[in-house]
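Justification of resources, computational component.

The compute hours requested in this renewal are based largely on the per-chain cost of generating structure records like the one below. Each record pairs the submitted sequence with a full structure-token output. That output is archived, and it is also reused by downstream analysis tasks.
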Amino acid sequence: MNDKSRSDLFERVVLPHLDDAYSLARWLTGDAADAEDIVQDACVRALGAVEKTQVSQPRAWLLAIVRNAAMNWLTKNRPRHLVLVDDFSATEANPPAALRDGRDPETILIAAAEEEQLSQAIAALPPLFRETLVMRDVNGLSYREIAAVSGVPIGTVMSRLARARDALATKLVGASRPRGAA
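The structure output for this chain reads:
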């Protein structure tokens, strides 16, 4: 395959899914710059493999490469028990635009606080639960696609997702109770 053909194939298979790749890497690392590095590494790997691989599900294929690159990066660069989370406030809604949409400042602040609380709760999940939750609820992958990306049976995916959602709900309900309430 010549360079032009490989480039065209890469553009068709990989480029449409870069946003999902970055989103997954961002959630797994908790850092924008690290996520960009991981996606770049994954794209280099995908470019090398795209002509040698029969890709029937490009999105799942790329996310598997991103997941593996992220796990390798985390293993090299971070202790297993430590996962840092950036300040996600930079990704929240822009209040002036929200005000133009007719929402009042109080509603905007409450929504921003809830988004921050949700982001923190997701970031606090164990990595395997967090990646499964992000792939399903953020990236919209099917159970079968998540199983393929993670290299685990569908039952394990379902179990991790259920446990992640339970942990998330417990954390969010506990965070919304006033201090001292039973």
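The domain at 1-86 is CATH 1.10.1740.10 (Rna Polymerase Sigma Factor; Chain: A). Residues 81-95 have pLDDT under 50 and may be disordered.
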